[in-house]
Design brief:
Layout (H helix, E strand, L loop, with lengths): L1 H9 L11 H14 L7 E10 L5 E4 L9 E4 L7 H7 L7 E6 L13 E5 L13 E6 L2 E10 L3 E5 L9 E12 L2 H6 L4
Antiparallel strand pairs: 1-2, 1-3, 1-9, 4-9, 5-8, 6-7, 7-8
Length: about 190
């Protein structure tokens, strides 16, 4: 009896309108499949997210008092932290994901080697303040550095990401998933 019920539920529920080309029926099926596409490499994904630290303090969110904008990215291209990307793999539109990401899957551990003191003369003229950021260039390429301390002669610069060493909690809702187009792949500079 069960197999017969299953077959009945799959049966076509009416006659096909012969004035509508069969391709029109195929299009609606394709759209339904597209909506349930799973996140995989080269997927163009749009999410809403809230990022909190270990104490539950909100660090960033795509949904704010002004309505906020969702984040879009190409999956598998290193555009979001690896731990979150891994947790989103296989998810579909409408899925909600809560994941805690250790520093190794986030912005890495803090590295003392990325903290250095430089002469004030090596930085642009003007008023310098703790918390200011600059783009620095070194043997590892370009990096954003933050002033963490200063005195009359020297400035301490920290090349660690501000969230390096932090355990991060993400609360994510998948808004949409589709295959990335060539324009998506090149528009984000990762062709």
């Amino acid at each position: 009896p069960r197999p017969r019920r299953a077959l009945r539920s799959l049966r076509w529920w009416g006659k096909r309108d012969s004035s509508v080309p069969i391709s029109e029926y195929a299009c609606s099926t394709t759209q339904a499949v597209e909506r349930s596409m799973q996140i995989a490499e080269r997927s163009f994904v749009t999410i809403h997210y809230t990022l909190t630290d270990a104490k539950g303090q909100v660090l960033d969110s795509s949904e704010g008092p002004d309505g906020g904008e969702p984040l879009s990215y190409v999956h598998g291209r290193g555009m979001i932290v690896p731990g979150l990307e891994e947790a989103l793999t296989g998810k579909s539109e409408g899925d909600q994901v809560k994941v805690t990401v250790a520093p190794e899957g986030g912005y890495g551990q803090r590295q003392d080697s990325l903290i250095q003191k430089v002469s004030r003369d090596e930085l642009p003229d003007g008023d310098l303040e703790v918390g200011m950021r600059f783009r620095g260039h070194g043997p590892g390429g370009a990096r954003i550095v933050t002033i963490t301390a200063l005195d009359e002669d020297t400035v301490t610069l920290d090349g660690n990401h501000p969230l390096a060493g932090a355990t991060l909690s993400f609360d994510v809702k998948v808004v949409s998933v589709r295959e990335a187009t060539e324009k998506d792949l090149h528009g984000f500079g990762h062709g």
